[in-house]
Amino acid sequence: MSSTAGQVINCKAAVAWSAKSPLSIETIQVAPPRAHEVRVKILYTAVCHTDAYTLDGHDPEGLFPVVLGHEGSGVVESVGEGVTGFSVGDHVVPLYVPQCKECDYCLNPKTNLCQKIRVTQGNGYLPDGTSRFTCNGKQLFHFMGCSTFSEYTVVADISLCKVNPTAPLEKVSLLGCGISTGYGAVLNTCKVEQGSTVAVWGLGAVGLAVIMGAKAAGAKRIIGIDLIESKFSSAKFFGATECINPKSIQLAEGKSFQAWLVDNFDGGFDYTFECIGNVHTM
User: Which regions form coiled coils (predicted)?
Assistant: First the structure.
């Protein structure tokens, strides 16, 4: 048992007090985990576009004040009553999509978008409808069930995945969102077949994960599409066979980029992945 088990922990966190305001580094209080909860010492966190999207006030579920962040990795500090799958010292990655393995969604072979704690998570709370974060006497909301922009966080035990202790924590944090989103879209959702042609719009973390998945699936052509050509070398490293900047294509008058792709890639692609989150690109 850790020396801090059962105690309130004071630690640093990046707090979003309101939408469109800069994050503020604050000393916050993190309460001990309750039943079926785990307190985690966060060692690494990445930044996802969803964090910025919420901070900018665009997320309809956005709540303030809040501790953002959902791509993290760390070590279990303490566990609450009834937790059997985790022990102090385990290396873990928080999950914004939990796995209760009991609800209709978890039991359905077509999806794993667990709904067991969806309502409370969307309301910024842990499953019992309360928060473990306070700052200057004010309650802070949880974010996506993770809140990794804090040195310590508390998550539901179904919102946590144990990882191999030899895996580098500074890298596996990306498994919490970007890599699993892109890689899973290829192998689990679309089930891309060997010999397919694949086009990927947006060469950020999700796009690179799609490319990695398409290569693993045996796609014969993987086309990376982005306006920022400095991303092309990374895309090719992960498996893109070629990359295109739409702005550099000399289109005939009245011809669209879509029509150009159809003409130059044998009628188009077997699979296309939009990895930007831009409705116009879609």
Answer: none
Angle at Cα 68 formed by Cα 132 and Cα 78, nearest 5°? 40
- 46-75 pLDDT, tens digit per residue, is 999 899 999 999 998 899 999 999 999 999
Total-model pTM: 0.92
In angstroms, rounded to a whole number, what is the distance separating the alpha carbons of residues 116 and 222? 37
Q: If 0-12 CB within 10 Å is exposed, 13-18 middle and 19+ buried, where does residue 153 land?
A: buried
Q: Which CA distances in Å does 102 have to 57, 96, 106, 127, 255? A: 34, 17, 6, 15, 51
Phi, psi of 90 (to 5 degrees): -60, 140
pLDDT digits (tens, 9 = 90+) for 180-219: 999 999 999 999 999 999 999 999 999 999 999 999 999 9
79-89 tens-digit pLDDT: 999 999 999 99
If one counts every other C-beta atom within 10 angstroms of the C-beta of residue 159, the result is: 24
Across 90-188, where does the E strand assignment appear?
91-94, 133-135, 138-140, 152-156, 160-162
Question: Please, are residues 167 and 91 in contact by the beta-carbon 8 Å criterion?
Answer: yes
Phi, psi of 160 (to 5 degrees): -150, 140
Strand, coil or helix: what is 8?
coil
Strand pairing partners for 10? 29
> Token pair of 85, please?
């799958």
DSSP H helices in 136-278 = 169-172, 178-184, 205-217, 232-238, 257-264
